[in-house]
Amino acid sequence: MSTTSDLSFYLRPGDGLHGRLRVPGDKSISHRAVMLGAIADGVTRISGFLEGEDSLATLGAFRAMGVPIEGPDAGRVRIAGVGLGGLRAPPSALDFGNSGTSMRLLAGLLAGQRFAATLVGDPSLSKRPMRRITEPLARMGARIETTHPGTAPLRITPVAGLCSITYTLPVASAQVKSCLLLAGLYADGETCITEPAPTRDHTERMLAAFGHPVRRAGSRIRIRGGGRLSACRLEIPGDISSAAFFLVGASIAPGSDLTVEHVGVNPTRIGVLNILRAMGADIRLINPRDAGGEPVADLRVRAAPLQGIVIPRDQVPLAIDEFPALFIAAACARGETLLTSAEELRVKESDRIQVMAEGLAVLGVEVQPRADGIRIRGGDYGGGRVDSGGDHRIAMAFAIAALRAGAPLEIRDCANVNTSLPGFADLAAGVGLGIEERQT
Ligand code: S3P
């Protein structure tokens, strides 16, 4: 669960980033590997599992529901799947800490079980919108109570059975899509979901790897209820959302030449590459290959002058977690960058438009937040003390901003980095970032 101790990063403006590194496994894929492994028949072996607080919360939930799980041990996890109907009632509330993915996806899976469950989270997760999942799940016949504003705790009561629905997602959200696909496994007949824009498709790919393929035609996805999932081996690629900090860092810091190895480059996740390249970044994909049904490559990035752009709307869902890092790229670019159609950023682990705008303003960057995005004017900026708002990605984004800051930087409230990238400071220091961690 997210820790309460207060950790600060202290950063010295520095030279470029150099060498090679590997980032830990993809968070989205790690969650899904545990979920599908747990409800499959047979033993699933995972390598490259992210040992961060969020994915460990998912793993802990399945242990609490009686699934024998060994590990993680250096990224290896062994899950003795209990089959679609084999989960048991957890002895107490399932606590997902900071992890929206755990709560939203598991709500779908638990809606179809024969036992009750309560899903709780930390103060950030307890503020995030849950009606986006509880409304369509209710249409499937699920019984889920939320607080009055539609937030966690979620109380799920068993029902006789779920029925399939045909549903168009009101927001482009892979979490909502995946929640409904998992509920669809437990529904009568065929559930049909339409996405307003492409979002990460790891659930669909992994269901196919477990022998329960979904059918896709354009923006429409169909899944049949029932049947079985067959255990498999999964190799989880490095998380492009973690790599993003290094891609931006090496792009903005003069003289940099950095290779991030074995990064997942699924087309539904590479908005950050497309946007950085449109800004003039020099990023090359080396040795593209396949890892467990997901495309992977090494990414070589060299410093390059960046130019402000209008971020294409269609790239927003494909880069949704990478905007804190991209805002730092924009602050270092020549001219103005404009982001619109990104209101979802206001309901992530923090209000990422507001918290980033406040931090950038501390550094002296000219920013204009908007309801659905932000305008950022690039140029020189200074240092100072910035607050991450307890948001892991904001803490790491400001850490790499130090590479171009005119003065030292202090970033407060950084313990949450452990939710997605434990060891960030050591990894970053290893390739040249002047970073020190201090308990405060
Ligand atoms: C995720 C989907 C995204 C993303 C989150 C992980 C997933 O959320 O922001 O960090 O694993 O499905 P939305 O689907 O709500 O945009």
| Helix/strand/pairing category | alpha/beta
Shape field: globular
Query: Order of strands across the biggest sheet?
Result: 23-24-1-25
Terminal-residue CA separation: 19 Å
In terms of DSSP E residues, the strand content is 25-35%
Roughly how much helix do the residues carry, as a percent range? Answer: 25-40%
Low-confidence stretches: none
Write down the Rg.
21 Å
Main β-sheet: number of strands, strand sense, barrel status? 4 strands, mixed
Mean pLDDT comes to 97
Number of strands: 25
Give the distinct bound molecules.
shikimate-3-phosphate
SSE layout:
Elements lengths: L6 E6 L5 E5 L4 H12 L2 E7 L5 H12 L4 E5 L2 E7 L11 E2 L4 H12 L5 E4 L10 H9 L3 E3 L8 E4 L4 E2 L2 E3 L5 H11 L2 E2 L1 E5 L7 H8 L5 E3 L2 E5 L8 E3 L4 H13 L4 E8 L6 H8 L3 E10 L2 E9 L20 H10 L3 E4 L12 H12 L2 E5 L2 E5 L6 E4 L4 H10 L7 E4 L11 H7 L3 E6 L1
Parallel strand pairs: 2-17, 3-16, 6-7, 10-12, 11-13, 23-24
Antiparallel strand pairs: 1-24, 1-25, 3-5, 4-5, 7-9, 8-9, 13-15, 14-15, 17-19, 18-19, 20-22, 21-22
The chain binds shikimate-3-phosphate (S3P).
Shikimate-3-phosphate binds next to helix 5.
